[in-house]
Amino acid sequence: MAKDKAFARLPGFRDFPPEELQIRSHVFESWRRISRRYGFQEYDGPPLEALDLYTEKSGEEIVGQLYAFEDKGGREITLRPEMTPSLARILGERSRAMPKPIRWFTLPQLFRYERQQRGRLREHFQWNVDIIGEAGVGADAEILAVALDALRDLGLGKNDIVARVSDRRLLTAVLSSLGVSPEHHLVAFEIVDKVEREEASRSLQRLREECGLSESDAEAFLGLVEDGGPEDIARLHGKGPGVTEALADMQEHQDILARLGLGDFIQFDLRIVRGLAYYTGIVFEIFDRNREFRAVCGGGRYDRLLELVGGEPLPATGFGMGDVVLTELLTDRGLLPDVARDADLFLVSITPELRPLAHEIARAHRESGRRVMYALRDQSVKKQFSSASTEGARWVIILGPDEVEKGVAVVRDMASGTEAEVSLEELRAGKGLGGDDA
Ligand code: HAM
Question: So what's the pLDDT on residue 434?
Fold first, then answer.
């Protein structure tokens, strides 16, 4: 191998050296804590799945981003780009025997061959929380509450983030009442999904050409999508199929979230349709208020997916929250904890002969649950103290020949700088650090 060959990390993938991993763990801990607070149970599945699990159910965009290949057994497989189809598959095999509703969460690493852009990588971790087996709007509200509570737990408030909420049934009803045939609804959703990133003229052109809307209807539709509230939909399209029900659900959704203390985080917004094909009802995305970042979280109701993958026909609602945009946002707001080294105890041996004693004392304190370190070979006292400080040691035990001769050692409290002589007997029993070491 050429000597100068350097192995680069693949583009869009991350390494997690300890400082980065500590940040990731901080986010994961919050996700797990809040999931449990709402009564969800953790599950997982394999990172590789059969290709056809995604080709029909997820929609074109994601299928174009698959890391797909043929395995040695000739199977068409892919790294999972999202978790929802796996969840549907896993439940397909076992949901019949389970009490409903099912409340499950997971923290998978997902893979999408994305174009390089800010906030989008080719792998990310995505917290997924889903309720399966409950068709009522109470489940939709609960799901959004979980997502918002985790963001609050991480320090983000109502001035930092907003959940933009819509309902695909409303958009469907509006499209139907404008005479757009059902086979054109998905493409209309796709146009709406891109409306904020596209020139208005281009969206209007697509609505005319791909959905068959007249110029004035296309304009009216786009105007409603961009600025319309529930009252406008009720006034203009109130007689459409399912509109009354969807509007009532939207009201109930808002009322529940207000009672859960999250009313200030919610905004109705018809532009939210979600890029994935399987959503059927209330959908939402959470953004930073200033819209500097991409969506932190997206989800919604998908009542037909379980049946589509061959399982029990169960209604479902859930979301995915990625770690990439979230970490960018937390960094921007100064909400990430300092990553500090935090040993409890460092043992300094003044002479090499005392190192065996350091091992014995270290063992006892480790058994007491403390993080304990010492130099792994003979080192100057100065170097040992410098390591103690690098490791952020709370206490240092100094093993000196004269003290050991007397049956004691010096314990230095690094926070206060005070020192005390403590008997070796106590130190060998994993005690003697004072205060909270009982
Ligand atoms: P999604 O909108 O594709 O939904 O992804 C959810 C979130 O994952 C996004 O808002 C974003 O934070 C993050 N994310 C997605 N792709 C990337 C990427 N390439 N790089 C970094 N972050 C990314 C879903 O995947 C649905 N399966 C969520 C769901 C669960 N719906 C119902 N249950």
Answer: 77
With a cut of 50, list the residues of the chain below it in pLDDT. 438
CA neighbor of 198 nearest in space, from 209, 206, 186? 206
* Ligand 1 centroid – CA 30 distance (Å): 18
Which domains are delineated in the chain?
18-332 (3.30.930.10), 345-436 (3.40.50.800)
CB of 318 within 8 A of CB of 299?
A: yes
**Structure token pair of residue 409:** 């050692």
Do the beta carbons of residue 286 and residue 174 sit within 8 Å? no
pTM for the model: 0.93
From the CB of 257, is ligand 1 less than 6 Å away?
Answer: no
Q: Mutate which of 82, 114, 272 to test ligand 1's pocket (most atoms within 8 Å of Cβ)?
A: 82
Q: Residue 438: what pLDDT?
A: 45
Q: Ligand 1 centroid vs 127 CA: distance in angstroms?
A: 9
Q: Please state, in angstroms and rounded to a whole number, the distance separating the CA atoms of residues 315 and 145.
A: 19
Question: CB-based contacts of 389: which residues, under 8 Å, 6+ apart?
Answer: 414
Q: Is 130 in the pocket of ligand 1 (CB under 6 A)?
A: yes
